[in-house]
Amino acid sequence: METVKTASFEYLIDLAKENPAGGYTFILDGESYQINDVLEISAIAKAHGYIVIY
Fold first, then answer.
1. Helix, strand, coil proportions of the chain in percent (round to 5)?
2. Residue 42, class by beta-carbon neighbours within 10 Å (0-12 exposed, 13-18 middle, 19+ buried)?
3. How far apart are the C-alpha atoms of 47 and 19, rounded to whole Å?
4. Of the candidates 49, 53, 54, the residue with the CA atom closest to the CA atom of residue 5
């Protein structure tokens, strides 16, 4: 049986922490990402198998 993972976009944005030098650090399922824009979060979450709810 496959597990369905869902997350709201607002929740995922709250996980992104702004870096002093610019950009954001986003951690999902224990993996850390350096991103420039929070709009990148959806693609990362989908790659992790999440259904993103807007």
1. 30, 40, 30
2. middle
3. 23
4. 49
Kindly report the backbone phi and psi dihedral angles of residue 13, in degrees, each rounded to the nearest multiple of 5, phi listed first: -65, -35
- The alpha-helical segments, DSSP class H, found in the chain are 9-15, 41-47
CA-to-CA separations, 13 to 1, 2, 6, in angstroms, rounded: 29, 26, 14
- The rounded distance, in Å, linking the Cα atoms of 16 and 12 is 7
Q: Residue 15 and residue 28: Cα distance in Å, rounded?
A: 8
Q: What is the pLDDT of residues 1-54, one digit of tens each?
A: 778 899 999 999 999 999 999 999 999 999 999 999 999 999 999 999 999 999
